[in-house]
Amino acid sequence: MTTCTPDRPILRVYVAPGCLSCRTALRVVDAVRQHRPAQPVEVIDVAEDSNQPLPPGVVGTPTYLLGKRVVSMGNPDLAELLDQLDTALNSVDDE
Fold this sequence. Notes:
By secondary structure, the chain is α+β, with helices and mostly antiparallel strands.
């Protein structure tokens, strides 16, 4: 399990078995880990964690949450996602 660092909210990606778009989501997660190695990322398989209630906003897969905020329903463009991660980091630095 990935823990949240003080300056970086966790990027959680909700996936499900049999979801074709979720295969792409796993490739996006790998790319995020390559481009932003300090970014905490957690992949949550909704079938494996079926006893846990889904957070608000998670109504399908793949869904990307940054902290508690939905940043994408479906797969985002990698450059846009990286920009959102950088913006989130910079907004914490500014506070």
